[in-house]
Design goal:
about 200 residues, Porin, eight-stranded antiparallel beta barrel, about 10% helix, about 55% strand
Length: about 200
């Protein structure tokens, strides 16, 4: 009788362990949540000239690996238009943003890799360039476009709530026909630096 009870006990314990160790695609049944936000700077080319894009990104982190978020970036340095507009040589306005999906590889390691994709849209227009270098409000023509930007980066854990991510991306542009600017003038490679603050 004692042997029978012992066998039943072992079977029950083994069965409960099997159910408690259910395997799932993500996180073996346990899901952790976090999030981050921070500024981004990108060095790129716009219509063949050096460009600096500044913006920010943030997202919801699932199981320390998957990120669902968004970001937006805009041109901050002065790039002149190719043609005069209303007798002036205006500067170029260029910006875009969208949904970002990121995968963090071995987030707990001091140095690790990330891959990310942005899918969204943007717009290009002009801003006035006056002789005294001041700005004046005026109506400029503008054009919208679709953007797809995959990227790969290396991330360094500085402290528990702060990380630095650096890497490269390529900006694919579709649907841009603004004055003499085409898709290829706005597309291109970027080198970026991101400062991430949050719970990882």
């Amino acid at each position: 009788m004692k042997i029978f009870l012992s066998i039943i006990t072992i079977i029950l314990i083994s069965t409960s362990q099997l159910f408690s160790q259910e395997e799932t695609l993500i996180g073996n049944g346990e899901v952790s949540h976090g999030g981050f936000g921070g500024p981004v700077i990108k060095f790129t080319q716009v219509k063949g000239e050096p460009g600096v894009l500044v913006g920010g990104r943030g997202g919801w982190i699932i199981n320390h690996s998957f990120v669902i978020g968004g970001g937006g970036y805009g041109l901050v340095n002065k790039i002149e238009a190719n043609n005069d507009f209303l007798g002036l040589r205006p500067y170029l306005n260029f910006g875009y943003g969208g949904v970002e999906l990121e995968y963090i590889i071995q987030s707990d390691k001091l140095l690790h890799f990330t891959v990310c994709t942005l899918i969204g849209g943007g717009a290009v227009s002009y801003r006035e360039h006056l002789w005294d270098d001041s700005w004046d409000e005026w109506d400029s023509p503008n054009d919208a476009f679709f953007v797809f930007e995959p990227s790969a980066g290396v991330e360094l854990n500085i402290i528990s709530f702060f990380r630095v991510n650096a890497g490269v991306s390529y900006r694919f542009i579709s649907g841009a026909e603004f004055d003499d600017l085409k898709n290829k003038d706005l597309a291109g490679v970027s080198a970026f630096l991101t400062l991430k603050f949050g719970k990882f």
